[in-house]
Automatic annotation (TrEMBL):
Keyword Iron: no
Highest taxon in the source lineage: Bacteria
Family annotation (Pfam families): TPR_5 (PF12688)
Gene3D superfamilies in the cross-refs: Tetratricopeptide repeat domain
TPR repeat placement: 72-105
Boundaries of every Tetratrico peptide repeat group domain copy: 36-156
Stored InterPro entries: TPR-like_helical_dom_sf, TPR_5, TPR_rpt
SMART domains, A to Z: TPR (SM00028)
Record protein name field: Tetratricopeptide repeat protein
Organism expressing this protein natively: Polycladospora coralii
Keywords: TPR repeat
Transport as UniProt keyword: no
Length: 162
């Protein structure tokens, strides 16, 4: 199976999308209970903009039991795909599941903030983005305002007048 996957990836990289997709679909048909085949098929379709098709393969891979070392990436992929399809609640649930299992996985938080924006939870989306920025930036100009930004991130709608 590894050789077939390598060939598919190579064909896709060369721009031979149709033959790569045909072979990818044969692969998942030949190995319907192989989590790796399902996951690779999800990524393949997702990367080509075939989000609807990708969901089926993400969900099948999850039902088969994705190994822990690949689970956060799969949940991020599925959550992001749901968001692209306008299925914001499913996106939120999927990304929050990922964050519960992998709280240190920063991309999950960032993608959740995108979904929260779509759900009109702008304050929570901004809070997450600011938190991630403040925890990761090495930019001295931003760090200079770190204390103020930490204070404001939880009070975006507050005004301070005496």
């Amino acid at each position: 199976m590894k050789e077939r996957l390598d060939w598919i990836i190579s064909e896709k990289a060369k721009g031979n999308i149709e033959s790569a997709q045909t072979e990818m679909l044969k692969l998942v048909s030949d190995y319907p209970d192989d989590v790796q085949a399902q996951l690779e098929c999800a990524y393949f379709h997702d990367s080509l903009g075939f989000e609807k098709e990708a969901v089926t393969y993400y969900e099948k891979a999850l039902s088969l039991g994705i190994p822990t070392d690949q689970l956060s990436e799969a949940l991020l992929g599925l959550g992001s795909t749901y968001r692209c399809l306008g299925e914001y609640e499913k996106s939120r649930e999927t990304l929050e599941r990922g964050i519960q299992q992998f709280p240190e996985d920063r991309p999950l938080h960032i993608f959740l903030s995108l979904t929260l924006y779509n759900l009109h939870q702008h304050d929570k989306a901004m809070e997450i983005l600011l938190s991630q920025l403040l925890e990761t930036t090495s930019d001295s100009e931003i760090q200079q305002y770190s204390r103020a930004l930490h204070f404001y991130k939880d009070q975006l709608d507050a005004t301070f007048m005496k």
